Every structure is written in C-alpha cells, then in structure tokens.
Amino acid sequence: MAKYIYFFGKGKTEGNGKMKDTLGGKGANLAEMAKLGLPVPPGFTISTELCRLFYKSKMQFPKSLKSEFNKYVKKLETAAGKKFGDASNPLLVSVRSGAKFSMPGMMDTILNLGLNDKTVEAMIKLTGNEKFAYDCYRRLLMMFGDVVLDIERKLFEAIRDPNPKTVVEKYKELIQKHSGKPFPQDPITQLEMARDAVFKSWNNPRAITYRNLYKIDHNIGTAVNIQTMVFGNMGNDCATGVGFTRNPATGEKMFYGEYLTNAQGEDVVAGIRTPRPILELAKEMPQPAKELRDITDRLEKHYKDVQDFEFTIEKNKLYMLQTRVGKRTGLAAIRIAVDMVKEKLIKPEEAVSRVEPLQLNQLMHPMFNPTERSKFKVIAKGLNASPGAAAGKVYFDPDKVCEMADKGERTLLVRSETSPDDIHGMYKAEGVLTATGGMTSHAAVVGRQMGKPSVVGCSALKVDEHNKLFRVADKTVKEGDYISIDGATGEVMLGDVPTMESEVMQVVKGTLAPEKAPLYQYFDQILKWADGIKRLKVRANADIPRDAQYAMKFGAEGIGLCRTEHMFFAEDRLPIMQEMILATNLEDRQKALDKLLPLQRADFKGLFEAMRGRPVTIRTIDPPLHEFLPKREDLMVEVATLKAKNGPVEEIKKKEQLLSRVNELHEFNPMMGHRGCRLGIVYPEITVMQVRAILEAATEVAKSGETAFPEIMIPLVGHVNEFNHQAAIVHKVADEVAKETGIKIKYMVGTMIEIPRAAVTADEIAKEAQFFSFGTNDLTQMTFGFSRDDAGKFIHNYVDNKILPSDPFVTIDQGGVGKLIQCGTEKGRSVRADLKVGICGEHGGDPESVIFCHTAGLNYVSASPFRVPISRLAAAHAVLREKAKRPHSGTPYYRVSPKRSGAG
Amino acid sequence: MAKYIYFFGKGKTEGNGKMKDTLGGKGANLAEMAKLGLPVPPGFTISTELCRLFYKSKMQFPKSLKSEFNKYVKKLETAAGKKFGDASNPLLVSVRSGAKFSMPGMMDTILNLGLNDKTVEAMIKLTGNEKFAYDCYRRLLMMFGDVVLDIERKLFEAIRDPNPKTVVEKYKELIQKHSGKPFPQDPITQLEMARDAVFKSWNNPRAITYRNLYKIDHNIGTAVNIQTMVFGNMGNDCATGVGFTRNPATGEKMFYGEYLTNAQGEDVVAGIRTPRPILELAKEMPQPAKELRDITDRLEKHYKDVQDFEFTIEKNKLYMLQTRVGKRTGLAAIRIAVDMVKEKLIKPEEAVSRVEPLQLNQLMHPMFNPTERSKFKVIAKGLNASPGAAAGKVYFDPDKVCEMADKGERTLLVRSETSPDDIHGMYKAEGVLTATGGMTSHAAVVGRQMGKPSVVGCSALKVDEHNKLFRVADKTVKEGDYISIDGATGEVMLGDVPTMESEVMQVVKGTLAPEKAPLYQYFDQILKWADGIKRLKVRANADIPRDAQYAMKFGAEGIGLCRTEHMFFAEDRLPIMQEMILATNLEDRQKALDKLLPLQRADFKGLFEAMRGRPVTIRTIDPPLHEFLPKREDLMVEVATLKAKNGPVEEIKKKEQLLSRVNELHEFNPMMGHRGCRLGIVYPEITVMQVRAILEAATEVAKSGETAFPEIMIPLVGHVNEFNHQAAIVHKVADEVAKETGIKIKYMVGTMIEIPRAAVTADEIAKEAQFFSFGTNDLTQMTFGFSRDDAGKFIHNYVDNKILPSDPFVTIDQGGVGKLIQCGTEKGRSVRADLKVGICGEHGGDPESVIFCHTAGLNYVSASPFRVPISRLAAAHAVLREKAKRPHSGTPYYRVSPKRSGAG
C-alpha cells in the first residue's frame, strides 16, 4: 500500500530534509529539524503524491486514505499529549500548504483548527484568558470561512466588536448564511475540509499565474502540513518572529530579523504593529533568545547556507516553525558565497554555483539612491532592456542630446524608436527610453552594448518628436523636463532621482583602486573561481578601443565581434561614408574609400593594442547602405513641405536628387536586403579597403613589437561561393600588404553562420572557412521569420500564451535555432576537425544560452563587454551542471524574474 | 595507343551517329550519313578527346598524333582520288569545328584548304574557270588569315578589286605584313595550323560567353572535321542550300528551306543574294532535287525527328554536308511530336519528352502580329516576367487604369513597383510594366498568376508617378500614350502593336470550341499523354471562382492554395477590412468581421462549386495588416502638405489620426513581421470568421448535393504550438457549424512549411498537422535571408558572377532550400507515414523545380492556373528522366534561354 502521510516530532520522524519532492519544502525542513532534535511542535505531512493523485482521480482520494489519516491523527494526539475535541486539554493544529518550491502567499494557511464551541471553553480554562481564546476562535472562523468555504474575507473584516465573543457569534452567523450550513464543530471534519481546501488551492488563479511567471511545473502538486499549534499570543512571555542568519540584502554576517511579543505569526508581516529588531529579543527573553541563536547557527552549519526561519515562543519556550534557504540579492549572494568559502563552510565550486550569473548585473550598474527614490512618482513601465539607473533632461533628438551633454547636462534620449544614426546621442545620454521595440530592438542592443540604462517598448508613452514632448496618461513631459528610468525594473519616474555609480564600474573605469573596493573584490573572487571551472572561452563584442579596454578588465579572452560599420557612424566619418554611397561610379567611390582607410586603420590599431595579442574578430561591413543616409520619409516630407510653401527651386531640386538616390537604396525588408557580404560582392572595393585597414594596422602593431591576431569574418554568408568570393579578396590584399611591408601577419578568415542556408550547408563552407561564428540574432530572425525590430508586437502575446517558452531573441531557442547551431557545428567539424566555433549574437551574454553553447561543444561565446562576467560565470555553471550529471532539459536552470505580468 | 581520328566516307566509316561525345554533333552525323550510304564527301574527324588532351597538356599533342594524322591524310587522298598539293588534281578540304552541342557561329570554319599558288593553277585547268579558282583562293586566304593568323577580317574586306587574282595578291601581302610570314604554301601545314586554330577557338571569349549562357560544360572540348571540298559555286549546274524536313516555326509537315545556285554555303545565310524557296529546286535541277527529298525523308525516318540539313550540288551531283535534329518553336515542337506519333514514327512517351514544358507558354499568351511588330521601335528592355504581348495606353495609377478600362480603353499599368493595392488595376490592365523588382517581385508573381503580360525591373525607365510620365533615354512617355510590351522578351515598344489572343486561351475562356481549335488539340493531346505518364499531382493556386474554372480547364487536380486575403482587396471589401484593422477593441473588430463573413462564404462556395469535389486548400489570412491601409509615406506627405498650406484643421486631424494608426502598424521588415498565423493568434476572431466562412460554404455546397473538400491551411507556422493554437480554433468552429447545421463536413487541417524552423521541427508539427505545403517563396526568402522584393538589386550580380547557378526564386535551390524540403518531408513522414506533402510557391510552375519535387517524393505541386499545363508536362518529364535512369544532377535538364546578357 502506498504511503501518503509522514509524521514529524521528536523521535518518531519519518521524513527528512531531502524529501522535498514528496513533502514539499516546508514539510521536508520540519522533518529535518525534528530529526536534529530541535523543538518542533509535532505534526504530520500529507504528501504531494496524494495531491497529484487527488487531481488525477477527479478530486477523489484512494479508499485507504481514511484509515491512514485516522492513524496519524491518533499518533499526533499521542505525541502532543492532547486530544482533538477534548473538553479539558484540546489539541489545536495549523494546516499549511507547502510545495517543493516556495510560493509565498499564493496558497492558504488555517490556524487553530480543533477549536469549537466546546473546546474554546477548555482553552479559556487552560489559559485563564477568555479574550485570547475567543480571538483564536475568531481567527479560525475567518480563515476557514475564507479558505474552505470561499466566503469573501472582507465580509468578515467588516464585522467589528470590542468583545471577541460577540465577533465569534457574528462570524458563525455569516458562515451559516453564506454556506447554508453551520461551522463544522467536529475537529476531524474541520481538518479534512481544510486539507481538501489546501489541495484545491494549488490550482487557484493566483497560484497558476505565479507558477507561470516562475516557470514552475503545474503538475508537481503541494503537500499539506498539519502541526500542533503553539501560541505566541498567550501573554507577554510569548513572542513570534522571523529572521535570517545573515543579512539577505548585503550578505553581511549578522543575526537579522524581527519579532513581536504576544502575537501570532501573521501579525509580524501584517504591518499593524511595528516589529522589533531581533537582536533586542536577547534583552527581553534571554533564555529563548540564546536558544534561538544557537539553533539557527546550528541550522546554518547543517545546511551550509543562510537560513530564513520562523519561530514562536510560548510561555518562554521556543518552538521552531520553519527553516529554509534564504533568498538574497545579487550583492548578498556573492558576499555570502565568498564568505562561506573563507569560513570553510563550502568549496569554491559550491560558491560559484550559488551565484546566478544575472545577479552580477546588480553590482555593475549605477543605482538609484534607494531612500531618495521612494519620493518620486512612477509614471509608466516598459521593458527592462538594459539595467541601471539613469536620470536626466528629456531630449528627442540625438544632436540635441549631444549639444546639451557637451554643455554638461545630464540627458535622456527619448524616441519612438532608435536607429543607428542615433548612436552618438545614445552614447552621450545617461539612458535611453523608447516607446516601441522589444528586448533586442536597436535601442536595447546598443543600450546593453554600451552598458547604458535603457527602457524600451514603453507603449504607454505617446512620443511626439515633432512637438518635442511625450504624453503618458494625463501627463505631458516636454523637452528639458527631468525624468528618471530604472533599466532593471523598466520603471519611468517623473523628476531627477539621484543615482550613484557602482563600485565595480568605478574599478573597471579606473576611478577606484580595487583594494579600496570590497564589493569589487567579492565580484572578482567569484569570477576567478568561475574561470578555474569553465572550459568555454568568453570574448567580448567591442567596436572601439575603449570598449575593448573595459572588456579586458571584465576578463574577455579576445574580441569575438568588432562591427566595423559602427566606426562609420562617427560624426567625422558619416559624411565620407555618404559620399561613398552616393557615388555613381567606381572612381568616386574609391576616392571616398581612400579617405576612410586611414581612419579605420587607426581604429583597428587601437583595438589590437588594447587586446595585446588576443584574437580580434573583425567583421566586414554588414548593414544596408541606406542606414547611413537620411530617412526616406523625412526627405519626402521635407520636399513636400518645401513645394507646398513654394520654397527655393534649387533647394527642392537638391533634396529631390538626394531623395531619388535614397529611393533607389530603399528596401522593403532591409534585414533581408542588400547587406552583409552581398555589399562586398557587388562593391568589392569596400572589402578591399577594410581588409587593407585591418592588415596595415596589424602590421603597424607588429612593428612596435606587440602581436596582433586578426580573424577576418565575412557576414551573412548563405552559399560557399559568397564566402569564397570575399575570402579571395582577403588573401589577395593580405599578400599585397605583406609584399609592400615585408611583414607577414598571421590571420584567419572565417564566416558568420547566421543564415539558415549556411547552417544547412556548413560542411561545404567549412572546407573553405577557418572559423565559424554563429550570429544568433540574425539566425533567430531567419529561422523563425521574426524581424527583431517588429516581433515585439506579438512576441509577448506568444510568451504569455505559452506558444513560446521565452523570447528567442533573449534565450536561444534550443528546439529550432539550437538544432541549426548543432547541425552547423557538426557539419563544419566533419570536414575540419579543428574548426573554431563561437557565437557572437546577443545570446552570448544570456546565461541559459551560454550553457547551451557549452553543451553544443562551441569554443567560445562573445558578449557585450558588460555581459562578459555573466558569461564567465554561466560557463562555469555549465561545467557544474555537467558534473552534477543533470541532463540538460528544456526547462531553464535559472529562476527568471518575471518581466511583465499579463499582456499589458 | 589511343585513337584520336575517325574516318568517314563510303565503306570505310569508323564512327556513327551515337558518338557525339567523341566526334561532336557534326562529326557523328557525317559518320552516320556515310554509314547509311548517303553521298557524303569523305573526310575524317579529330576527336574531342584530343581537344581535351590538348588543353590538359598546355596546347601540346601526344607524340603519336603526327603519324596518325599523316595516315588519315593518306586515307583521305585515297578515298577522294586526289592528292594534297597535286599540280593536276589537287585535294581541297574544309576544316570545321563541331562540339557535342551546336554553338552556331561561335567557332570557326575554313574552306578550300589545300589551295596554294600551284594548286590554284590546277583548279583553273580543271574547271576552266579562273575567276572561280581565284575566288576560292581568296576565300581561303581571308578565312585562314582571320581564324588562324588572327588578322582582323575587316582588313581583308577593305581590299576590293574586280579581279580576284589581284585580290589574292593583295591578301597574301596583308598576311605577310601582319603575321611576318608568308601564307603557308604547304597544304599539310595549312591543315595542321587550321586544326590547332579550331581547337584554340574553343576558348575564344564569345564561345565562353555562349557556353555560360547555355550552361554548357567548358571541359567537353570540340572535335575538328576535315572534309573533302565540294563546290556549289562551279557554275549554274551547282547549288548549295539548307533545309528542314518540317516547318520549324509551325511544325507543318512540309519540305522547308532555301538554296542558291552557283554559290558557297556562307552565301545562303549572308543575305547578299536572296535565296529561293527549296521547293523550286525541283524545277531547276529535278534529279538532285528528287534525290535530296528522298535522302532527307530517309534521314527523318532514320532519326525519327525533324532534320535540319545542309547540301551542295556540284555539277548536278548532290552531296550531303550536314544533318542534325532541327530546333523548333514551342508550337512546332508540339505539333511535330503529336504528328509523329500519329505517323507511328515515335511513341507518345517520346513525344512528351520532346516538348519542353516552358514551350507550352507560347501557345497560351496573346501574341503580337509578327508582321506589324517590326514597324515599331524598341525603347527599352526589362525582365521577361510574364510572357505575352500587351499594348495599351500608359497609366500610372491603378484607379485610373480601372476607370479607363471600364470605358473600354486598353491600358497598361506602369509603376516604379506594384503593391497589393494595385491588384484591381493590374487585373484590368492589358499588361504591367515596372521599373524595379525581380522575377518574383509582386508585379511578376501577380502578373503570372493572372496570366498577365508583365515586364519588370526595366531599370532604364525613370518613372515619375507624380507628374504622370516616364523617361527613357531622351524619350518622355506621358499618361495616355500608347506603348506595347512583350512579356516573352522583355521588350518595350513605343506605340500600339496589334496583338491577338491565342487559340488555347480562347478555348479555356470558352470563346472558341475545342474542335475548331487545332492548336488547342495538339496542346491537349500532349498533356493527355503527359498525364498518363506522370505520378505527381498538379494543383492550381486560385483565389476566385473564375481562376478555379480556368485551372480546371488546364487540368488542375485541385486547388493547392487559395489566398483568402486577396478577396479582401476587392473594392467593396477593402473599406470593411480597414474598419476591422482600425478597430481598437474586440467589439468593433467583430462587427467588421461579421460583415466580411457572408462575402467570404460566397467566395468559398464558388470555389468549391468550380472544383466539383476536388480538394481545395484554403490558407487563412497571411499578409501584414498594414498592406490594407494607405501607404505611410503617402500619408506623411499629405499631412505635411496640408500643414504647409494651412489646410483645414479637421482634415489634418483626421489624416493625422489615420497616420498614427498606420505608424503603429508600420514594420521595418514586414515580411518577417506580424503576419501569417501570428495574426490569427493575436486576433483569434479573424481565424474564427474565416473557418466559419469555409465550413458554412462547404455545408451549403453539400446541401446542394455536390461534395466540397476543404483543406484548411495555417500559414507561417514556425513552432508546433502556433499550429495547435490555430488548429484548435478550426476544430472548435467546425464542431459548432456541424451542430448548427446538422451536417458534418470532411475537412483537413494542415500547415505551410515556409519558415526554416518548421522544416527543422517538421516531426513535431506532423504529429498534429494532417498535411504540409511547402511555401517555397517564403522558405527561399528565409533560408537565404533574401527579401524577394529587394533581392533583385544583387541577385543578377550573383548569377552573372556564378555565385548562384540561378535565381532561387525562379528555380528551387536544391543545395539549401531543397535540403530543408527533403528534411521536412522525411521528418514529417517519420511520424505520419501518409502525410500529404505539396508545394505552393511560384516554383510549382517551374519545370526544374517540379522535377525536384517529384524526386523528393512530394504528392503534388500547385502552380498558378496558367502554369498548370507546364507543371503537368514537367511532372511527366520527371518520370521519363527517372526511367532513363539519368541520375538527377545539379545541372538543369532543360536548356534555358538566356534572359539577360551581362550585368546591364
């Protein structure tokens, strides 16, 4: 016969701390504490297995349950030395839910079961406290009415009377009226109804929503814990409280928590009375306080982790009601992990496994001063695209941002959406706020790349760039008004919330010495341990020397992606680039390219110098040319306006000519248009110039005695012939440069695999290409047929409706895109065993994707400089997961915080 | 020792007609004729193998060649009864190239070799005709100078003198001057030099270009034919001519050709003298004429195909110089094939194999009256997107086209590019001409779908839609001017070239009885035979009942794709559709959908009725919603103009509101945006309406006693969950309709496989979906990352530079897209063995792609109605190719005509 119930209590405990699958977290920890001999009120746990069976059997229990349940009721009566319904010493119990994963507040608790009209009298006699007894009965009636009988809590709350006995009478009437039956006087009936109600609460709407958000399996079910009541509200020698063995916000090693005397558990969190710091307990009740300190110390050592505990003191006797691993901030997680290694409680591997990679973010981005922040009003919420806090004056035009920033103003760039022309403004702004676009929209990608706080897709904003204002609900924010954005939460606040730069960033930027930055040292220690564990290399995506320097400080082992075109958007270069594009013949185009060559060469030299011999992957030009020209619609409007106003004929003509060329370059779907290697094939002279700049720069570095190792990468290859065309140019130019300078630079030529056709024909391509870098942004776009600039319009609907488990632009879609990555890697290595394979999409900084890349056998991931630490830690987690022989499943390893609730 | 030379001539012939690989086409046919005992002047063929060896050995011959060559020279002298260089009866020969595939005019011929200062005297004596002899010598010097010594032909042509002897002297001087050496007097030296020159001419630039265009292998080499000269120019009892055993233009069974008396071969084609119809030869030279008729009859029966022959009559004696299978028009190909079956010359299978599927086109599209056409000027040339001839007045606005067409005018729609809003105009216009876009641009696809003559991507056109004119070079064509376009050649002509509708189309449209249409009968006969051979089913893409009716007449076995959204573009529906899109809440959207329901139901009913129980695959809505709204840029310009002119405030406000909604729907890459099932998932009510319309229509048809078999197809599925979401709606609505009407309609639910992710996860999808239809247009777009609306800008460069073998939007890219089709089919059938699989992209009407689909094991292809006959024939060819056990290779089975030469 299956076993559904497990007893706990001194000497008779049947479960233990490892049985969370069966007993739930609370039940397992109660059993473990009881086994350790700690003062746990006796009780029993009804297993999650019974819950699953209950749902499978259409809310029916197996026949054997009744007798098993009665057996455990008797056992509990024996252990407690009291009997249910006893007129002199009645047994009272609590009934609590407890699933494997904590779901705070999602399901229900009922206290004081066993009270009825008869036993309440016994309690009065026992305690000599009629008010206490009736208050307990009142609480039972309200909780039972709410949880079991589904009577709205506010109906109970509306009933007020100074005499608790009167309240009890009125509550009973309310129950009779709403449920059509009187409150059940039989304690066993109460117990059974409460048990069933807890099982049913597993599928109440808020529990379902919670599990959706935290990606908890809906099928695991909950356990029910039935435990002897102890009372913290029997008088002033009674108390109840909660605490942590270390500070969960900062990680500091200190006894942390709060308590109330003469109170029941819910009073501590209800906020009616102000609880007192737990350290004061020692003064008030020295004996139980000491015992509590000893017990929690012991629990921390036993579990080797911070404990989050609940206790009650009944007439100076301490009872432990709960203990569990304490949740903590990123900062605390790192500090606690490092401290515990120093205390020899855990090994470095364990410390590494306890820090979630994304938690590192919290140490990197500027923060709002928390006390100041609460004074400001949140006016809207968008997507938390790039974490960090930023405040400044609103501007709608990147040039204006630059102008004002150069004058020393803090600015925020607010746009409907951003485009590559806005980069200078984004760079100068404190942060970026857009009304449209998803987590990988231009603003989001560049924001993260720059480590710039960004809130995107804030659809409540009606941006009117023309009139230089935005509206949100009834508020209008004009150019020059202050707002503040929190890139970690997506919140937009009215006004200038003060921020501060993190210690870690100060060290990376060289404004703070590492030895004066204790937080940086914790951060650095965890990452050093991670480096000792990981096998996957981590590179950075960096386009300019400054980013490369940051990347090095963050531990990058090379540059995995330098986007050469970003260099063309600089103020002094854009006009030359436009000259090149507007050229109608090779000669004019060549003239412009000749001007760009020395500029690019200088950039590359800076990168090589910063990377000191580490590999630098440089991608030839990628975006469609019209991105460098004024917007077509803007020109059309300008021309129409000039014409309507009978403007100067010459100016109209000039604008029309420009518009005509822009029209020629216009594309309906630029993401699938004339870009990538398609540009270099139609205009080989562009590739020639870029390759020359790379190799001349490398030669200059070599002359100075340093090594430069360029890996030249051809983008958007779909057919091996495209690669061959461009690779031939690379080799030809390399030979020329070697001949001219007498120095032969070691370089590689490889390709992005970002077009599905390239993945499918990777064996053909690998015969020619020396390395692969999966461009997972484009590969995700093409594999799904999702434009990342547009998918925001429906992708949240998809995630909310479980059509997709997560945004594939954030976490690699293993079932589809991942298959192409595996297929491409296998095919590539089938013809070139030592093929170097990496990824350089945004996914290179996403922990779950990094772990996938490790599993898929890639050599490296490349992430934006500010994500490098995250990827290093994730790469270590990949090895630890492998060691734990946990086979990789579709469900994420990390708990992900909910980003948006509902579709709003 | 390898054999490099093959003799031909009565009794001693070493080769035969099947040895084209070794002897080239000309050599093999000469050998075959000689073997048949026909009067062929003796000679020998130097094999292609030697040519290949020649190139492989850096233009060196094996040592053994010299003696073998000498041996054959002797053999020839014996056979001819003459000797080279003989002072009394010298042997003269021609040297001609001859590869496996005919490359007319691409390589070189030299006549009269063996003449020198001595033998010319012998010829004078032999013929008594000094002028003739010197004329022969002159021709030799010119041809030798040009072909062997590389002296420009025009230098020879500049030398004129009435006395041929003087010309000969001057030619010899020219040769001495330019080559530094005298003309070689030794006949064997002449011969060897000529032979080497022919081998070298294999790689002259025009031969290379030709082979590129016609996709002929550059490595097969040419043979050289050395043959005893016979002279059609010895006097009036001499003649030379060319002919066909049947009319190659019409296929009529008639002796067809032309000849000249007293002339050499080149004079017939040179156009200096007007040749006479070959039937007249019988009057002039009855004996050789009868012999020629007998011989060519015999050759046609021998080869069982039309012969294209060359002959010379020397002093009343007939010599056959060449025979080969005659090239013919599509019309002739069909007629000849059918006639030959009737004559029991060939079997139906052979007849089917002799008609290239694309040749059927020529019987379907209206034609320009050929005599009239030559009177008009060609002003530009674009891509021949949709064949057929069209002439009409130019209009730049689809509404204007409709207006004028309704008034009875013939119109041509000229646009920079077309969009779905132009469909009504395209439908009403005679033809469509665009300045941009490739072979699968909107204009091209819809043009073919409609069977509408279309020339697209005509980049010489500068279309100024605003001023209602286009410019081409120095010409300006204004609204209302007549132009004519030929969709088969891409030519644009100024003026109104008269056209006539083809017989086939008249029959299909019901305006001509089949029995009165002999061409239709030929067409129909070939297709009936093809149907008896093919296994692949052929369906049609049709959106409206009229197209379905045409499809039926063209032999479609069902509808493979009904694009439901096309129904929304109709004049009476677009406003309702816009109402639906502009709705900001479900209630308003539902109101608009309720209005659309009866309209869609009526459309579907018409389709079901037309198809009489054959399967009808209906795709739920696919394009992004903004396609139904006014263009964003147009609105922006309107608003700007109104504002600049201080227009009415109310109107500005209204336009701005519309613009605001259009901006919300605007997408950067609409092809990868919110379209396909993504619409039906975010707005399930649209799918509900469409499914209800389908099933209610099917029910109405069922009530009338006819069968309707809807296959409901969900577009743009990338993840099985998307399919499941939509399939659940289909089943739910089907159940509702069945309950309401009491009639249960048999239907299927399947999906398009057009997203790479769908192909990669086809096994997951096939568990749920009952059929697959590969949407090869989108699949090609996503697999390559090529936007078909934009790829025109670089795809020709790719094809010209051999980066791609052909435009993947025209012929399926077997190496990439084809792999995904195979992978998707295999994975799909691995979980559902009877999965019905088809394709419904434009490729369904491309012969090579149809053959691929057969090979890949698909069940059907679906093509536009006007391509159905082509696909039927191609499907038969697929079976014949399989039978011939020719393994499918990457090179096309069909000769494709060159569409554009060079990049221009």
What attributes characterize this protein structure?
homodimer; 904 residues; alpha/beta; disordered C terminus; 35 helices; eight-stranded mixed beta sheet; eight-stranded parallel beta barrel; 16% strand; 31 strands
List the helices and strands and how they pair.
2 copies of one chain form a homodimer.
Chain A: E1 5-8, H1 20-35, E2 43-46, H2 48-56, H3 65-80, E3 93-99, E4 109-113, H4 119-127, H5 130-147, H6 153-157, H7 164-179, H8 187-201, H9 205-213, E5 222-228, E6 239-244, E7 256-261, H10 265-270, E8 276-277, H11 281-284, H12 286-303, E9 307-314, E10 317-325, H13 330-342, H14 348-353, E11 367-368, H15 370-373, E12 377-381, E13 383-386, E14 389-395, H16 398-406, E15 411-415, H17 423-428, E16 431-434, H18 442-450, E17 454-456, E18 462-464, E19 469-472, E20 475-478, E21 482-486, E22 491-494, E23 499-500, H19 503-508, H20 518-533, E24 537-541, H21 545-553, E25 559-563, H22 574-582, H23 586-611, E26 615-619, H24 632-644, H25 649-665, H26 677-682, H27 684-703, E27 709-714, H28 720-741, E28 748-753, H29 756-760, H30 762-766, E29 771-774, H31 776-784, H32 792-800, H33 817-831, E30 836-839, H34 847-855, E31 860-863, H35 868-883
Parallel strand pairs in A: 14-15, 15-16, 16-17, 24-25, 24-31, 25-26, 26-27, 27-28, 28-29, 29-30, 30-31
Antiparallel strand pairs in A: 1-2, 2-5, 3-4, 3-5, 6-7, 6-9, 7-8, 9-10, 11-23, 12-22, 13-17, 14-21, 18-19, 19-20, 21-22
Helix pairs in contact in A: 4-5, 5-7, 13-20, 20-35, 21-23, 22-23, 23-27, 24-25, 27-28, 34-35
